[in-house]
Amino acid sequence: MDTQVLIAGAGPTGLTLAIELARRGVGARIIERAATPAVGSRGDGLQPRTLEVFDDLGVLDAVLAAGSPQASMRAYAGGRFLGERRMSDWQEPTPDVPHPNPWMLGQDRTEGILRDRLAGLGVRVDLATELVTFTQDENGVTATLRRNGVQETVRASYLVGADGGASTVRRTLGIPFEGSTDESIRMLLGDVRADGLDHGSGYWFSDEHDLRSGVALTPLPGGDLFQFACPLDATGTEPSLATLQAVLDRYCPDSAPRLRELAWTTVWRPNVRLARRFRDGTVFLAGDAAHAHPPTGGQGLNTGVQDAYNLGWKLAAALSGPEAEAVPLLDSYEAERLPVAARVLGISTALLRKHVAGDADAHRRGAETHQLDVGYRDSPLVRDTRTEPGRLRAGDRAPDAPVVDADGRAIRLFDLFRGPHATLLTFGATAADTTVAEPGMPVHPVLRPGERATASAVVDAEGHAFSAYDVADGTAVLVRPDGYVGSITRSLVSSPSGA
Ligand SMILES: Cc1cc2nc3c(=O)[nH]c(=O)nc-3n(C[C@H](O)[C@H](O)[C@H](O)COP(=O)(O)OP(=O)(O)OC[C@H]3O[C@@H](n4cnc5c(N)ncnc54)[C@H](O)[C@@H]3O)c2cc1C
User: Fold this and answer.
1) CA distance 251 to 214
2) Which of 225, 245, 269 is the last residue of a domain?
3) Which of 48, 72, 301, 439 would staple 370 via disulfide (CB 3.0–4.6 Å)?
4) Alpha-carbon span 121 to 268, nearest angstrom
5) Whose CA is nearest to atom 30 of ligand 1?
6) Are residues 82 and 208 in the same domain?
């Protein structure tokens, strides 16, 4: 094999997957058709669950330093100020959710941070290198690449198509991309500078007589650019600075801000599609290659990052472990991610309908877009018999909690989970069944205050860990490498609550 995993496409999905593989020592090659990294803010809203993934990948500090919270929007009608409101209500962090609010950062800058992290792991994106076609057999894939007109043949154990909505990988496999493209709706989007606007706020400039139609300008962190978005007539003109200015002038007669320096622009059509399968043999689809979203709801980039985060550890385990274990792990990728993508498409499509109908709340986003409630309870990997409503179950996101380590330092459960490994938590001083822990897997007893901490134990000084995991003493909880509960093993000693 020339490489263990060939990744086609270096957008956020491909980059996340490459980091996941590289930090596990898997030989991954990531190729990108474009000669230079993409420019443009596109997916500029990072959801809370993505921030948790970025924490695990080691890029959260850079993302927080480069980005900013969502700005509130100032609404104007015909140039007259109407009021100011937030796109979503500000949430205070809680012990189990340390990053409850979306974070804004232009997609090109997020990708830059991911590329830097990948380079730190010794892997560089092969730019100007296109996947042309491939064939597969039972041992892997033979791919044809093209770089500067020169063809190259590469053998890989696995191929992942992270090559966007027009995916060559999906098309080569002939996997249907089911859904629709609505040609009657067009959105004009761009990154511009605007004279006369405070960059600390977002703006909604609407028609004096029709508050439903207008232009949104949202500030992009790390400079003075705004992301410009407005619906276009079906027969609208080409995207240009003059077009954007003319649209703005229409909504703010006499008082329109002056736009200048169009850094990026596109005309976007709602394309809402889901691949019928996410896997064919040794080939996988991830990100926009598997599901295309409307930008309403800010889900596309986030869902792609989660796909990659779900697939990375499974591919690494399949490549290093016995074949018998590889089959259920690799099968579980589609079983876990396809229903999530279908659900997320439903959420963003409902928001798109609100937007098109001119619903005043179309720009507001609720907790359903945060992806913290994504889980895999129906996964074939789940081993748990707990079914009580409201209780944490296998397949759920493993909550965070503040704890104290054996040296008396305040740390978090997420500190224990960070890294490429799975983690076993055992609760209380009562003996727990630790047989699910594989050799080398960190095992951390979570003790109640007053119990004696050994080297790897932590003390649940404020009671948040016991309450978030909702378990009795002696329970063992396996946390998968991607931060979901893999199994909950009951106490070896029977407890009255039957946890
Ligand atoms: C205007 C707009 C606003 C958006 N807003 C949001 C938002 O707020 N939040 C959000 O989460 N998402 C948003 N999105 C969606 C988000 O941009 C996408 O979901 C995200 O880019 C998908 O990432 P990806 O890596 O799967 O695919 P892409 O980013 O499309 O990357 C695929 C890469 O593969 C490369 N490629 C294609 N074919 C080949 C080939 N044959 N060989 C090699 N390389 C190839 C492409 O050049 C590209 O770089 C928005 C999108 C748009 C257009």
Assistant:
1) 7
2) 269
3) 48
4) 35
5) 164
6) yes
Quick check: CB of 125 below 6 Å from ligand 1?
Answer: no
Q: What is the mean pLDDT of the chain?
A: 91
Residues 45, 91 within the same domain: no
Report whether 487 contacts 384 (CB < 8 A): yes
Q: How many residues are there in the chain?
A: 499
**Reported confidence tier of residue 172, pLDDT bands at 50, 70, 90:** very high
Cα distance between residue 36 and residue 264, in whole Å: 14
- At 71-103, the pLDDT tens digits run 999 999 988 999 998 877 889 999 999 999 999
The model's pLDDT over 380-438, given as tens digits with 9 standing for 90+, comes to 998 766 778 889 999 999 999 999 999 999 999 999 999 999 999 999 988 888 998 98
What is the DSSP secondary-structure string of 137-150? ETTEEEEEEEETTE
CA 446 to ligand 1 center in whole angstroms = 41
* Tens-digit pLDDT profile for residues 309-332: 999 999 999 999 888 788 899 999
Q: Pairing relation of β-strands 45-46 and 485-489?
A: unpaired
Cα gap 380→51, rounded to integer Å: 27
Position in ligand 1 atom list of the atom nearest CA 47 = 11
221 CB near ligand 1 (under 6 Å) = no
